[in-house]
Amino acid sequence: MKKLIFALVPFLFLFSCHKEQQKTIILSKASSNYIKWIEAENVIVLDAYTIKNTDSILALADGIILTGGEDINPLQYNDSINLAVCGDINYQRDTLERKLFDFAFKNKLPLVGVCRGMQMMNVASGGSLYGDIPTEIGTTVIHRNNGEVMHEIVIIDTCSLIFPIDKDTFMVNSWHHQGLKDISENLRVIARSFDGLPEAVIMEKSAHPFMIAVQFHPERLGTDNPIHQKMRDSFYNAMGE
25-71+79-238: what CATH class? Predict the structure, then answer.
């Protein structure tokens, strides 16, 4: 019996070390593109949208990603006028993503927002949204046209967490008709499209150590794209990998 106990000790030590290195990333609503973008060895990716007991997975979380999707209910930012221009509203998702954001903010967990996720970050921290970009801002820049389009954005503030520092303009993909209007006091805009719409924001360090977000879709830009790589690397660094 003693030999068996001694034989198990190295195994248990190795197992505990492996478990300590493991990370758990929560997606507010998963898709294959997000999973392929963020997956890695020793990483568990959980889809919060399909799990009933959110508290159980939040206790495991090392990082959170708010993903793209439907229009946010304008009542989330005290605006009833925008209800007329919204698509179908997903009340479950609005509630879920508020909870994920609040948990990440309170517990200083790294968080990334993508498209709707950037909008939710702004709304959840006190900002508001344009209800429909073409009617409120115009069509100088086309942000969607029966699907995804490409357009240029310009860097207006330095942030090596999202963009390589050797360029000041980038081509990005776009598929949305709403965007950030009144910016939360805790967010700093670091990139805009040429119609002035915010395209990337970061949370001020004084409020949270790592929250970054973009209005476009880095998970669909391709593995060779520098923004795709930079955002992923920054997220993992923030989680301590």
Answer: alpha beta
pLDDT digits (tens, 9 = 90+) for 38-87: 999 999 999 999 999 999 999 999 999 999 999 999 999 999 999 999 99
- Residue 8: is its pLDDT beyond 90? no
- Cα 130 to Cα 72, 83, 172, 214, 220: the distances in Å are 11, 11, 20, 16, 24
Average pLDDT of the residues in 155-184: 95
Catalytic residue among 143, 151, 176, 217: 217
Residue 217 annotated as catalytic: yes
Active site residue 86: no
Which of the following is catalytic: 17, 70, 115, 177? 115
Query: pTM for the whole thing?
Result: 0.91
Domain locations along the chain: 25-71+79-238
The token duo for 204 is 């001020």
